[in-house]
Amino acid sequence: MKFYVAFIIQMILWSVFYIAEWLSVKDHIEYKWIMFVLFFYVAFIAARKIVQSRRLTLFVTSFSLSCFFGFKILFENLMELF
Prior knowledge:
Blueprint: H1 2-23, H2 29-51, H3 54-81
Helix pairs in contact: 1-2, 1-3, 2-3
């Protein structure tokens, strides 16, 4: 159950990151990388507080990040079709 809660919270954080990235379309790539690192850190710390295991925290974070990028690519490809 802790895994699921941490995953949902991280998906919410990644969604906020996507909105922030979308709003900062004119920013330089360096600022987007800094923003990504900050969101990654916040997501990692949030999962660490919930799961309380470093190995499981790393797994949850990498799994949620993989799902996020997969959904992002799928969503952007679907938007191009319409």
